[in-house]
Task: structure prediction
Amino acid sequence: MADDHVHPESLPRPAWTRWLLVSAVAIAAAHLLDETAWRLVRLPAVYEKDWGRLLRSMGFLPTWLLLALAYWLQVEDGVLRRRGTWLLVLGPTLGGLSAEVLKLLLRRLRPDAEQFGYAFRAFADGPWSNRGMGLPSSHTLVAFAGAFALARLFPRARWVFYALAAGCGLTRVMATAHYLSDTVVAACVAWAVVALVAARLPTTPAR
Result:
């Protein structure tokens, strides 16, 4: 079986430079659009819709653990099986953990449904509690980490995975659970998490 994955250990340094530049521009643009999105992109009942629940489930970690199991059951090549399974397990799992850690560090609260404005919690106020914090969006980070992992395994279908992850982030904004920038930061961090995980997994032997 030919190995057509892109391994981050073989990526040139400019790939990380591009990631930093694209992330910086995307995050800055998202902050400029936060108020507009907060005012216009609203659907409080989004999770009462079937499609809303579907998209939110992309940010539910057990979804990716089940997909990892399906991949493990399907693939016969030992190295590819281990690499793909661990990528689907560790990418979303570490993505979710990184979101929780970043929330404790950045400490920006979720949007107020009635009035736009960023609010932060002081470190002295519950330093180890991320209750009510929204930057970055955990659901979106898990969804994009899973999407980036699947894109490495099935590159031809990558835009399907990206669309599902983006949809997950969109529903979080629609539900006023997050600012647009919360979801964009999550997507940028997810790429880095998956790239770092993939760099440490076994690759297919040269043929």
